């Protein structure tokens, strides 16, 4: 029986690339959708606010695993059963990320004092100008640390794409394990790969947070 | 689209779904209680322990927080086997969840402990309280009260994340769903139903924590502050 | 002289609390009116109503021809005509002093950036802060921030300026520099309504002082007569304040 060797390491490295790609898709897609969710959550329109709130509750109240299964099988019965697993995985993670990012960003927007909106209003700025020229630049400063922090969650959660057969790091680990059965070595290596990706992001997020707190004092 | 939805096909399996829900709740409850206690101890160790212990706990928290739960579950499940012990999937799942949630609880509690003002501790010392009394009355209790909402969110996430235990076939709700969908070929319907069940569970768990909070934190109840 | 700002029988409540109970007064072009009174007397609320930051329940407010109480109110046009300065400055912390002033002219009025820059520099010079153009708000003292806030309002060339307790958050030595800027504005013919606790300033600069009490105009008198009030309540108020 073969043992864990360089060719397996190479395979994992390749799969780590897919983990990063899937993370990027989830972050970009989830960011776009999440921004819309955040805006809807602070909108003056009650219906829009309610819908966005319900969306967040559903996304945050359902396991990502189940969400992935629903999309995977949902696409299949809609006739898209030949689509690459990347599509279903990307869609699932996008929805997941949008639910959380939307809520994080709403908090950051609401952390900007109401008086800033008011001051901009009194300068005859339109609601959109108030948002984009006055409030968002300030909210973004507050949002960087938690957003980078959430990036870590996204990277880790791409591991669940393995359940619908997408070959990222975890699935690659499972595949290697199926052929040589050395689970401990393999999954420790897989864990190290994740750690190497996630730890710098965590540290960066912490640093940003510290800087923000100092700036506020 | 010509797909005919058929939720009725799932009806005969209601007992199995119920058993899955029950195991999910048990897994989550045990992991929450052990995770809370372990997390509190780790947070104290990290705030006030000897330097080597601080470093060990710090490293543990970082490793857990920067690797996926799925991989942790595999490692615990297979790692125990490597040690020559035999445990069933459910035990391994509980263990993995506890290892995971202890780290998150530790991090949340640490923030709570750090938010307690030094003057409070000095006031406790001046009143002649001993170290342990100060820790419990002056530091830990107010700290927990302050981070309670964050802890609740974490434990709801834990309940949802327990679905990942299906990957080592611990027979909780998601594993039950996986089996039933392959029996009935009603995959989409199965996961919709299970998704709704999880959604309901997350509301119930949140509500239970809210009630528990009212019971435990009398000050909050009197002041009417939102938990 | 036609009135620029006109309040007629204005009523306003916050829940069960009656804040404005039939307030009426007029402000002519170039006039300076000071609203004084204890906290809770409704003076700040009256000011906020004039800029449609609060809605009123009864009565009428007309500002530069805009009927505030009408649902058809064009808020943008109103805000172009009225400038307001707040107690807490409310400068935009992510912009420099100059950018704070340039923002509204460029994005609301469509002024070209070069012109806006010159305009902003002029306004900063008027408040005596030409050398602070590139400073961020947090690098400025409270008094300097408040002067930038005044310059920011000035840059929109309003017909009326409202000042809501603009010196209340400042140390006494910083108060003077802000009051001096306001006095210069008044001498330049700006129509101003100010809520203030500075009795000396009101006496010296305000054409009319309005003493508000229990949501009503209790007494209105020329600023120079502030030491000779007719009502005992204002006498007590002036006496305690000086």
Automatic annotation (TrEMBL), chain A:
InterPro entries, per this entry? AA_ABC_transptr_permease_3TM, ArtM/GltK/GlnP/TcyL/YhdX-like, MetI-like, MetI-like_sf
What membrane topology is given? Multi-pass membrane protein
Entry superkingdom? Bacteria
ABC transmembrane type-1 domain spans which residues?
16-205
A Gene Ontology MF term for this entry?
Answer: transmembrane transporter activity
- Where does this chain mainly localize? membrane
**Carries keyword ATP-binding?**
no
Indicate yes or no for the key word Transmembrane helix.
yes
Which GO biological-process labels does this protein carry? amino acid transport
**Where, subcellularly, is it found?**
Cell inner membrane; Cell membrane
Give the PROSITE patterns listed for this entry: ABC_TM1
One Pfam family per UniProt: BPD_transp_1
Q: What's any one GO cellular component for it?
A: ATP-binding cassette (ABC) transporter complex
Record keywords: Cell membrane, Membrane, Transmembrane, Transmembrane helix, Transport
List where the protein spans the membrane.
20-42, 54-77, 83-105, 184-202
User: Record's family?
Assistant: Belongs to the binding-protein-dependent transport system permease family. HisMQ subfamily.
Name under which the protein is recorded: Amino acid ABC transporter permease
UniProtKB/TrEMBL annotation, chain B:
Transmembrane segment boundaries? 20-45, 66-85, 91-109, 190-217
**Alphabetized UniProt keyword annotations:** Cell membrane, Membrane, Transmembrane, Transmembrane helix, Transport
Q: So which residues are the signal peptide here?
A: none
- InterPro entries from the UniProt entry: AA_ABC_transptr_permease_3TM, ArtM/GltK/GlnP/TcyL/YhdX-like, MetI-like, MetI-like_sf
Keyword Transmembrane found:
yes
Task: Output the Gene Ontology terms for molecular function.
Answer: transmembrane transporter activity
Q: Which residues form the ABC transmembrane type-1 domain?
A: 21-209
Cite a single Pfam family from the UniProt record.
BPD_transp_1
Sorted alphabetically, which CDD domains does this protein's record hold? Answer: TM_PBP2
**Localized where?**
Cell inner membrane; Cell membrane
Task: Write down the membrane topology.
Answer: Multi-pass membrane protein
Q: Some GO term, biological process aspect, for this entry: which one? A: amino acid transport
Q: Name one GO cellular component term.
A: ATP-binding cassette (ABC) transporter complex
Name the predominant localization.
Answer: membrane
Protein family membership = Belongs to the binding-protein-dependent transport system permease family. HisMQ subfamily.
Q: Which PANTHER family match?
A: ABC TRANSPORTER PERMEASE PROTEIN, MEMBRANE COMPONENT OF AMINO ACID ABC TRANSPORTER
NCBIfam families recorded: HEQRo_perm_3TM
Q: What is this protein called?
A: ABC transporter permease
Q: Which organism is it from?
A: Methylobacterium variabile
UniProtKB/TrEMBL annotation, chain C:
**Alphabetical list of SUPFAM superfamilies matching this protein:** P-loop containing nucleoside triphosphate hydrolases (SSF52540)
Query: Topologically, how does it sit relative to the membrane?
Result: Peripheral membrane protein
Coiled-coil blocks: none
Q: Where in the cell is it found?
A: Cell membrane
Q: Which residues form the ABC transporter domain?
A: 5-239
The UniProt keywords, alphabetically, are: Amino-acid transport, ATP-binding, Cell membrane, Membrane, Nucleotide-binding, Transport
Q: Which InterPro entries match?
A: AAA+_ATPase, ABC_ATPase_HisP-typ, ABC_transporter-like_ATP-bd, ABC_transporter-like_CS, MetN_ABC_transporter-like, P-loop_NTPase
Q: Could you cite one Gene Ontology molecular function of this protein? A: ATP binding
Its Gene Ontology cellular component terms are: plasma membrane
Q: Fetch the CDD domains from UniProt.
A: ABC_HisP_GlnQ
Assign the protein's first listed, main location to one coarse class.
membrane
Q: Which family does it belong to?
A: Belongs to the ABC transporter superfamily.
Q: What is the name of this protein?
A: Phosphate ABC transporter ATP-binding protein
Species annotation: Methylobacterium variabile
